[in-house]
Amino acid sequence: MSSVNIHTLNIHIGSPRALLSVLPADLQYATGFAPHADDATRFSVSEDGSIVTDSKTGLMWSQANVGAKGNFEKAEKAVAECRLGGHADWRMPTREELESILDLTRSDPAIDPVFACDSSWYWSSTAVASAPAYAWFVLFAYGDVNGLHRGSGGAFVRAVRSSSPAGQ
Length: 168
Hints:
It is a single chain. 17% of the residues lie in helices and 21% in strands. By secondary structure, the chain is α+β, with helices and mostly antiparallel strands. It has one domain: Mannose-Binding Protein A, Chain A. It has a four-stranded antiparallel β-sheet, with no helix packed on it. Strand 4 (121-128) and strand 5 (131-139) form a beta hairpin. The termini are far apart. The model is unreliable at 4-13 and 25-31 (pLDDT under 50).
């Protein structure tokens, strides 16, 4: 019996949920699209309930939305003014960071219930390379990712920061 190594596989499927439906479980993990619902200890909530820490990525997240739904500039301002847990270094997450908290085994919203989350779009700080006036945003209803003009007012924002290693 012979084997074939596939180095690059390009598939265009409308949403990450659709990709999960066609990939076998071992390939889901190899591609990074594996759900994390079985990782029961991944998220911990601060004593006051305002911060969720992700043990897998080392990131700290605002448990709820920061500010109201709005355009990119308003989202940036809301995150810059965010003061949770005595920290003032909150920022807007990258596209990859936002995608890391998607839970594609869930929908409406597609995120662990430890987060308060609207089934809506959330801004990322990542610019769309082919159109710098646009930024990537993630739909937490079911896990779609798309670009939106930064002047559009149709997305929420969640604040994120790197957690400090113990003792620092």
